[in-house]
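Appendix B. Extra example for self-study. Work through it before the problem class; the solution is given directly after the inputs so you can check yourself.
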Amino acid sequence: MRFFGENLSCVRGERLVFSGLEFAIDPGTALVLTGSNGSGKTSLLRVMASLTHPTAGHLAWQDGPVADDPERHHNRLHYVGHLDALKPVLSVRENLETWAQLHGGTDKKIALALKKLRLEGFENIPGRYLSAGQRRRLSLARLAASDAPLWLLDEPTIALDAASVDAVRTLIAEHRTAGGMAVIATNVDLGITETTTLNLLDFAPAEEDVWEGVT
Amino acid sequence: MSALVLILRREMRLALRQIGDSAIIVLFFVLAAVLFPFGVGPEPNMLARMAPGVVWVTALLAAMLSFERLFTPDFEDGSLEQLALGPAPLEMVALAKAAAHWLTTGLPLMIAAPLIAVLYRLPDSGYGALMTTMALGTPTISLIGTVGAALTLGSRRGGVLLSLLVIPLIVPVLIFGTAAIDAAIGGFPVRQHLMLMGGFLLGALVLTPLATAAALRQALE
Amino acid sequence: MIQQYANPARFNRLAATLMPWFAWPAGILIVVGLYFALFNSPPDYQQGDTVRIMYVHVPAAWMALFVYTSMALSSAVGLIWKHPLAHLSAQAAAPIGACFTFVCLLTGSLWGKPMWGTWWVWDARLTSVLILFFLYLGFMALQNAFDDPARGERSAAILAIIGFINVPIIKFSVDWWNTLHQPASVVKMSGPAIHSSMLIPLFMMGIGFTLYFCALLLLRMKTLMLARRARGMSMAQLHQQTAE
Amino acid sequence: MQMISDFLAMGGYGGFIWSAYGAVAVILIGLLVISLRELRTTSAEVAALEANSPRRRRNNADNKDATS
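Solution. Structure tokens for the complete assembly:
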């Protein structure tokens, strides 16, 4: 099912970061967001996840606007942001379970997800002992531990070694083969093929001061 | 509904792994209550007169200390984003958080309350009212506290500000909580006070999840 | 959207036009009202001359509630329609409302001492007004507690709406509970219970205070809009520098 | 003279009444003065920023080019 946004604009900290932005993603495709720091990649991902509301424009699936049924939208997506959402006092497995079970992930899928992200054997280690790369991988394991058609990934390969980057690439490829879609904000080439690229700088608004006339 | 159970289980699991956090709150409650006799003198009649008020005020202050950690860790490590993106509406998350807070803080305070009442020589006729008002009042406090915690999430000096916001809203619970115990000791009917406290609890149960969810949404924005 | 963007400048012009229409009548009404209140109104048969405190106490109480209501309303508008001026209006109103509430508490205390023999009693009316005062303070503190001003605005707006529960409680507290505080004698279904020689100066002060509030609100909103503009300009200059 | 002192005494309650009115005057006028001062400083700040703004700077540079 197609997921798209029309005429989106977003204000962060009293500044208009992008405006008039359009995008559309079809099953099996991937959209890569590029643009310099502060161009609004993270903002757009958060808008897509409906964590942030766009100042203008709207988001919709083929069967209806996101705003009509936010819970349905949440059930259709996985969001992996800058923050890992890991608890130091919970073990690797418990950390993953927390989020996977909320989205209907089974024990089998959770075990498989840990294997895919090369976390096998770490299941009972508390979160506080993990390295930055391991934390990142555990966070990405959420993607495989339960099903959702839309993946929203913010710099997914930060702190990952080459082998883990390969694992992520494979994960995304499998997801796309199965008809899933992915939106990836990144400034490094992940080597993912057949993607559409959306450069946020193309939607940078003209400087406009709302309060200009106030003297 | 199962989402509510899952979130509640997560909260309880986290709270039990960090049980020391709850223990410290109860310890503060006891210590603060023990301070009063040093200040006002150990005269038994006066202490008995003060007992309902001291128990309630110190319980409120102790609860106040616990609210700051209610959402802050989840906000800082990104768990709150994931909870917001979960299948359950944020209102339900707010309710689960309040329930977990009550189980890990309100309930221990309630259990410790009669111990303090004993130290203050609360007349025997007051214990029933003390426990009933605590049972009705502490969940209300947990619910109102979640609103304050959500509103001040990510602010500078969150804890002090939180108290400034929450204390005025909790005043009615304090007023009727102590009034009911006083009435019970004096042999007056307590029913009306308890009905009002039950009303506060029901009102808070309906309204605070909405307010907390609204505050959390804009905190994530 | 376009309307939203055009608004601040247009509002600014409107405010400049309206300002004298609020400020001058406010001054005149308050001065004339004071004359009546202090020189030309009868002492109460029970309370003697202390009843003169009523002419500032009661209008201040009205304003405390009125300003809070306006604050909660603009907060709701700001949250629902994201209108840029709504939050500014709430932000500008808060200190004025806090001052009126403080005036109400202070004059009430100065009236209570000779009449009831005490500066303060813990009854429902006084306590709920005190809570209103704390709500104003909490609103202002919350507004300024965040590094991102937009966040403070929205958080404080939610608090303002929650705190609105207190307004009907204050209004009806004298009817619901038997307290030392006398029941409302002006706003009643059966018509006012006080004589017109007292009612006229009371209303003059009330309208004068309302106009004073309106004028001051416009003035403070203008200050806030300018501050917003200043922030925007320094941010733009920062961007300019990083671009160069 | 008697009338004035009677008036000031307010039937024995002068202290309460005059301090109430005094407090009202101090608070309401004080708030007005503070608000006016804030408006002045903010206006000055905006004016300073405006004088400094890129657009203005560019104009100045153009003028300089023209004169030199």
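Self-check: Residues 30-68 of chain D form one domain. If your reasoning did not lead you there, revisit section 3.
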